Amino acid sequence: MEGAPGTVQVVGAAIVDSLGRPMRLLAARRTAPPAFAGMWEFPGGKVEPGETPEAALHRELAEELGIRVQLGREVAAPEPGGWPLNAKAAMRVWFAEIIDGDPSPLEDHDELRWVELDDVERLTGLAWIPADFPILEAVRAAGCA
Ligand SMILES: Nc1nc2c([nH]c(=O)n2[C@H]2C[C@H](O)[C@@H](COP(=O)(O)OP(=O)(O)OP(=O)(O)O)O2)c(=O)[nH]1
């Protein structure tokens, strides 16, 4: 599904240790661009023309982290295009569990960290991209449901 016209469609993964009983979330620290370098995010990226959002997410996770995942449910977002990131972009986020590979920061990240979902202080204490905080809250709420 395409996002709203003129909107850059971004996809991200809330990678958890187990889709059935998520306890930990994998946070990734960006290396670029300078405005986002050092900030934590949901690994993912932009959907390319002709690509489905799910295919884009699988591609990005393979490129960036060297993993294959099983996607779980989508983290319900306030708009069909997903979570607003800025004036031009919105991100849809899916839960995901690793089914192959050991995640490593191959591209775009310099550190990966598993964080307990119920350790709110530690999780929200990371310097996430500001637009990600509401998403993080929804991930926690959905994951702990
Ligand atoms: N991947 C990701 N991007 C996010 C998050 N939060 C957030 O505001 N963004 C923004 C940063 C970027 O402006 C945009 C995603 O771009 P990207 O740089 O990850 O996309 P990409 O891998 O396809 O990169 P490129 O081809 O444009 O170089 O969305 C997040 O949690 N994950």
TrEMBL record:
Q: Any idea of its EC number?
A: 3.6.1.55
* Record flagged with keyword Metal-binding: yes
Keyword set, alphabetical order: DNA damage, DNA repair, DNA replication, Hydrolase, Magnesium, Metal-binding, Mutator protein
Which Gene Ontology biological process is one annotated for this entry?
A: DNA replication
Residues covered by the Nudix hydrolase domain: 6-143
In terms of InterPro entries, this protein maps to: MutT-like, Nudix_hydrolase, NUDIX_hydrolase-like_dom_sf, NUDIX_hydrolase_CS, NUDIX_hydrolase_dom
Cofactor(s) in the UniProt record: Mg(2+)
Q: Supply the enzyme class, top level.
A: hydrolase
The residues that cross the membrane are none
Instruction: Name the catalysed reactions.
Output: 8-oxo-dGTP + H2O = 8-oxo-dGMP + diphosphate + H(+)
Keyword match Metal-binding = yes
Matching entries from SUPFAM superfamilies are given as: Nudix (SSF55811)
Which one of the record's GO molecular function terms can you name? metal ion binding
Task: Give the family this protein belongs to, as stated in its UniProt record.
Answer: Belongs to the Nudix hydrolase family.
Q: What is this protein called?
A: 8-oxo-dGTP diphosphatase
What species does this protein belong to?
Sinomonas humi
